[in-house]
Amino acid sequence: MNIQTLKMDVVTLNAFLQREFPQWNSETGSQVMDVTADGVICRLPFNDSQLRPGGTVSGPTMMGLADSAMYAAVLSRIGPVALAVTTNLNINFMRKPEPRAIVATRRILKLGKRLAIGDVSIVSEGDTDLVAHATVTYSIPPQR
């Protein structure tokens, strides 16, 4: 399902995120791995600061990846609009993620003039079982 023509590919999206949202890559090592007609795939490398007691990746870490993946997916469709912002994020934690990189696959469900709605599936890298699922809504600023 092609919601809208792609306006940013992997290279331009990663470059924009590095410039406008440097903590995305420089602090976390996150990276957009693929941009497709359906959405994006983002990867967050693992480090010990993401662990919570019990040896699992923390909920805030997964929420941050879900939110960032939606931002990347929206930008891939609307172009470099830095002021698109989250208006809602709902996440369900489904199982304990392994202490390794996590990967988010993001799908845009609706892209309007003012709102974008999508869902994200998060897995431990190398696994297919979902560790979390989120729905995210982004507000798109009016065009000038």
UniProtKB/TrEMBL annotation:
Domain Thioesterase, residue spans: 54-128
A Pfam family reported for this protein in Swiss-Prot or TrEMBL: 4HBT
CDD domains associated with the record: PaaI_thioesterase (cd03443)
Q: Which domain of life is it from?
A: Bacteria
How is this protein annotated for GO cellular component?
cytosol
Among the GO molecular function terms of this UniProt record, one is: 1,4-dihydroxy-2-naphthoyl-CoA thioesterase activity
**Which keywords accompany this UniProt record?**
Hydrolase
Q: What name appears for this protein in its UniProt entry? A: Phenylacetic acid degradation-related protein
According to its UniProt entry, this protein's organism is Candidatus Phaeomarinibacter ectocarpi
